[in-house]
Amino acid sequence: MLLVIPAIEIKDGCCVQQVQGVEGHQYASDPVSMAKLWRTENAKSLHVTDLDGVPDGRLVNSDMIRLLIEAVDIPVEIGGSLGSFEAVKEGFDLGAYRVVVGSKVIERPDEAQRMIDTFGASKVVLGIDAVEGIVPASGWDAVMVAVNAKAIGFRRVLYTDVRLDGTMRGVNLKVLRDLGEKTGMRITASGGITGLEELLQVQDLEKVGIDSVVIGRALYENKFSCQGLWRRCEAGSYPYTARV
User: Fold this and answer.
1) Tens of pLDDT, residues 184-236
2) Residue of 68, 72, 108, 70 lying closest to 87 (CA atoms)
3) Distance from CA of residue 197 to its chain's centroid?
4) In whole angstroms, what separates CA 211 from the centre of its chain?
5) Which of 73, 98, 199, 222 has an alpha carbon within 20 to 30 A of 114's alpha carbon?
6) Domain spans of the chain, in order of start
7) What's domain 3-234's architecture?
8) What are φ and ψ of residue 213, in 5° steps?
């Protein structure tokens, strides 16, 4: 069953939504209150990105993230292209269920291996930010990046199509299918979701390993026929009730 994970992106202490990694919309002044709201809506997990820390691959809003994690009784995944063992450790010290590291980490396989050995392959996730399947920073194919990560010991990839992120222009189903079929890893998709019909299309890829999706703008702007998506799930209307 596909797991729907609301995104909370923190910048300058506010809850925002970036578009294609650059422009953004501010949706709330208090990310902690937003986390509580998503939990009230019956979300099963949250994805939190520390945008202020992305340039340096570290966490900047640690105190706020700790408060956010303490405020809800569901697993919280922390992202932000974290790039060092120390940054990953801090994420887990804050109470994160999972921590997402940047794809450049695999260029330092010894450090990546240390992360996995220390915290567990199911807890450290490789984030791949790409454009139509190509990672701009390196020019590598996303599938190849994932294959290399798997050889180190990673089991899960968070794949974000930067060109689609925050635009609600649709999901690149072909790239997602390739990632699942060619790597055999568990895949979390992020970027471009427009509504319920697209979620159903992504769920069709569950058989190749796409088991979850991070959604931001479409949830914040109420693009679903029913904003209480998880309530409908539990009523048996839609199958988005997977365990984390």
Assistant:
1) 999 999 988 888 788 888 989 999 999 999 998 888 887 765 455 555 555 65
2) 108
3) 20
4) 12
5) 73
6) 3-234
7) Alpha-Beta Barrel (3.20)
8) -145, 135
First-residue to last-residue Cα distance in the chain: 10
Per the CB < 8 A criterion, the answer to whether 17 and 190 are in contact is no
Burial code (b: 16+ CB inside 10 Å, e: under 16) for 182-204 equals ebebbbbbbbbbbebebbeebbe
Q: What percent of the chain has pLDDT over 70?
A: 84
pLDDT in tens, 25-39: 666 679 999 999 999
The amino acid present at 152, given as its one-letter code, is: I
pLDDT of the residue at 132:
86
173-183 helix and 142-152 helix, angle to the nearest 10 degrees: 30
pLDDT digits over 64-113, tens only? 999 999 999 999 999 988 999 999 999 999 999 999 999 999 999 999 99
Whole-Å CA distances, 150 to 48, 65, 221, 223: 24, 29, 36, 35
* 27, 220 Cβ separation under 8 angstroms: yes
Three-state SS at 83 = coil
**Rounded distance between C-alpha atoms, residue 129 and residue 202, angstroms:** 18
